[in-house]
Amino acid sequence: MPRYAQLVMGPAGSGKSTYCSTMVQHSETLNRSVQVVNLDPAAEHFEYPVMADIRELIQVDDVMEDESLRFGPNGGLVFCMEYFANNFDWLEESLGHVEDDYILFDCPGQIELYTHLPVMKQLVEQLQQWEFRVCGVFLVDSQFMVESFKFISGVMAALSAMVSLEIPQVNIMTKMDLLSPKAKKEIEKYLDPDMYSMMEDGSNTIRSKKFKKLTKAICGLIDDYSIVRFLPFDRTDEEGINIVLQHIDFSIQYGEDLEFKEPKEVEEQPANLNYDDIFQDKANS
């Protein structure tokens, strides 16, 4: 029987631990067993019980205090993750082997782990060898994404993780519950973006012709191939959380031996979802 895993990724402060905690609570209401593994050796606290904690293997503070290494925070984290990659047997022992395992891996926020270092790719390959079906869940703070060029930056970060890991990936805008009503209205266009329109809106702020041409090419790549789309995540909205979980379950075919339903309103473009649609669905139900 297959096992299932979410790699919860995203920049520091994007809400990864909050996402894991919310998903654990939501799964309990669905009578589903979901476990969490902390893979951040610099984590200080989190609001969920863990089945395994990388800090039992190695911690950033210990590495930084080692006078023979003399690492700073970022170098210390990279060292910890490379040490972890050389000790996957610790993770295998911690996970055990239970059929239909569904595990959330709360990952560190340093983007270099997903761009030019092989650690996370090695983790994915190891999990697949252990019969896990793995989905990447890339989080971006919605409060950061309310301007077009910041949005493009977030899209490129998500795209770099997709290219590096080569697994199904669901991209999520977190902290929607913290947005003002005006900001919620403004962010609708970023959930189903017209990249060319964004380019035109911001073209007056770009002075360099080369930079304008590069930005247009990036926007065209994203828009023409529908490579990156985002789902909204409001931790106070059970229906919205369930829609996110449906997308992830569908990408890894969770419960494929059961009668499985596709995510709501996404027959052709799974991530093409408007934030107002969620509330409208909730009001009609």
UniProtKB/TrEMBL annotation:
Residues 263-285 are annotated as: Disordered. The keyword NADP does not apply. Keywords: GTP-binding, Hydrolase, Nucleotide-binding. One of its GO terms (molecular function) is GTPase activity. Small GTPase required for proper nuclear import of RNA polymerase II and III (RNAPII and RNAPIII). May act at an RNAP assembly step prior to nuclear import. Small GTPase required for proper localization of RNA polymerase II (RNAPII). May act at an RNAP assembly step prior to nuclear import. This is GPN-loop GTPase 3. Gene3D superfamilies: P-loop containing nucleotide triphosphate hydrolases (3.40.50.300). Signal peptide: none annotated. It comes from Maylandia zebra. Binds to RNA polymerase II (RNAPII). Belongs to the GPN-loop GTPase family.
